[in-house]
Amino acid sequence: MPISIDNYGVTHDGRPVQRIELTAGSTRAVVLDLGARLLEMWVPDRDGNVADIVLGYPDVPAHEAGTAYFGATCGRFGNRIRRGRFELEGTVHQLTVNEGLNHLHGGTVGFDRHIWTVIETQENSVRMRLELPDGDQGFPGALVAEMQLTVGEGSLDIVMTATTDRTTIINMVHHSYWNLAGASSGNVLEQELQIDSDFYTPVDDELLPTGEIRLVAGTPFDFRRPTPIGQAIRDVDHAGAGRSAPAGYAGYDHNWILRKPAGEMGPCVWARDPKSGRQMTLRTNEPAVQFYPGGYLSDEVTGKHGGSYAPFQGFTLETQRFPDGPNFAHFPSCKLSPGEVYEHVMEFRFTAE
Fold it and tell me: For the whole model, what pTM was predicted?
């Protein structure tokens, strides 16, 4: 069947969690209403062998206890805000903080911690909604957020939208960790990446942007041509936010500024696994992408399919507004006002050769 819905488990406080499976030919996705998250993504390699290429926890208790945001829709503001503070229209707002002294991916109870309401299903698509009150996690404005995920043969489209009744900030991000060789196949350091970007935003030792914008040319951040993820990764170690890197180095957790005009659909990232031949392209309407190859993952984390996740076993591609955007006037606006509709689009395409 193209779509099926069944029970996945129960949260610690007794709420049922649904598992939604979408199929289009040899392409299959599994989504949970807990965190509106992508749990599985099955695509074929060059020989037609199908594998799940996203990391994930094995059950509901692991999702509730986990801190890696595997596959989740994150918000209200994905990425980091320094000290959880920002000023909007003359008022200073204090958010919950959940990474040292800073706000990360929506705070202590972000979008990933909620069970979303499934409001529409079609043959190969599901749409979910989350409604949050004014003041939730310290954010102004009652918010209505939606996430629609659609599967096609060799494709995955994600559309995130939001509206508010009071001026607020918004930066919804999708947080899947990709491993094109398969979710339990080992590290991704030999997989190739190309980012359509000439500039990135440097970070400090808390992984927060300094406000600078630098050229990637001549630095380890130059992915303008297909480049193995691990080629220069040891040159960008940031053991930030009070965390230790199990491998002894953490590598990238940075924001690349895309070449395309902000707000318009355009190229973002191309990735390839040389061994399986799987390739992935990503297009978006957002102005930037956060690339993070899982340097803080630990083999103490139990994953799906009976495996565990060591450092660098998956990479995230979080298309986004800039981190800590509300606190830098020269960064793209993340303000959302009543009557406006925030829309964030991601288009993934999968091939193999």
Answer: 0.96
